[in-house]
Amino acid sequence: MAKCSVCGETAVVCYADARRCYCGEHFIEHFESKVKRTLEKYGMVKPGELVLAAISGGKDSAALLGVMTRLSRVMGFRVAGIHIDLGIGEYSKRSREAAVRLAGQVGVPLAILDLRELTGGYGVTELARMAKRPPCSVCGMVKRYLINAAGLEACADAVALGHNADDMAVYALKSFLTQDLEAIPKLGPKTESIPQLAVGRIRPLYSVSEKEAFLYAYLLGLPVNHEECPNVDQRQLEVVLKEQVTLMESRKPGLRTQLLSKLAKRLRDYPQPEGKPEPCRHCGLISWGGECSFCRLTKRIFGKPLGPKVREYVRRKLREAGIEPCREAGSS
Ligand SMILES: [Zn+2]
Ligand SMILES: [Zn+2]
């Protein structure tokens, strides 16, 4: 049986590329120092800053909240959580329960935004059906919109997303295969804030694999909903690419990390979005062309955009969770 390279105890994990093995305790240490290096390398967070972590209830978000909470103590930043209840039946119910237990366990305030409360009872699947759009694209847009709104209203310095290295490699390959090159600049470890319009996003798990995130959450005993979203179609390109990335990594260990660190250096070489971001005429949040996607979608479905009522709703939910909303953002 393999032994931990640090202490000689029985190992729980071995790395093929660097021929190292770790016991549980030293794997946790290794994982946390890896994420700390990512935070430092890409200048993701400074002492005193507030990071709002997006918590879906799945394993990556558990690892994200766990590691960020522990690192916040040594690095001196603050962490709060945000969960979006997308109203996808039992799946959302169990995801929400996992998120609540997780935040309680690590001792971080968690605000919950419930899409059905905002739409008068419609979850993301119904909204997608009414708009005749694929559920995953509506879901992604709604999450981005609400997380950004929460980040702005909380005056967070950054929103932290739980994407791991496998996810990012899949997105990068997908953008390349479909030649959606404009999507690539958004795939870096960090995007900058745009004052009043958008909160910068950071991806602290940018350098860790899905397997590592899973093992970390497991070893810390963090609550996780392991179900997959019922809207995920197994034929989707992402699902196919995920299998390919796993295969590629097993044959060429380290290739995924190389791809991502090289990509992070070259984000500016890819086509940037045309035009300038401007405030949505309905809700004041970021838009390209004067109307944000959330307002456009909800206007199409309900006859009037729901964006304007989101900000007050978000402030109320933040306050209920004990996360004090800031003044500047809400008054714009
Ligand atoms: Zn050890
Ligand atoms: Zn809007």
Q: What profile does the largest beta sheet have?
A: 5 strands, parallel
Query: What structural class is derived from the secondary structure elements?
Result: alpha/beta
Tell me the distance between the termini: 61 Å
Amount of beta strand: 5-15%
Q: What is the multimeric organization of the chains shown?
A: single chain
- Supply Rg: 20 Å
Task: Tell me the number of helical segments per DSSP (H or I, 4 or more residues long).
Answer: 13
At the fold tier of CATH, the topology name is Rossmann fold
In total, how many domains does the architecture comprise?
1
In total, the number of strands is 9
**CATH H level: which superfamily?**
HUPs
* CATH architecture label name: 3-Layer(aba) Sandwich
Average pLDDT score: 94
Low-confidence segments, given as residue ranges, are none
Q: What is the CATH domain class?
A: Alpha Beta
What order do the strands of the largest sheet run in, or round the barrel if closed? 5-4-3-6-7
Please give a structural write-up.
The structure is a single chain. The protein is of the alpha/beta class and 332 residues long. Helix content is 49%, strand content 10%. It has helices spanning 24-41, 59-75, 89-106, 115-119, 124-131, 135-153, 165-177, 210-219, 237-251, 255-265, 293-302, 307-320, 327-331, and strands at 13-15, 20-22, 50-54, 78-85, 110-114, 158-160, 201-202, 278-279, 286-287. The relative contact order is 0.15. It binds zinc ion (2 copies).
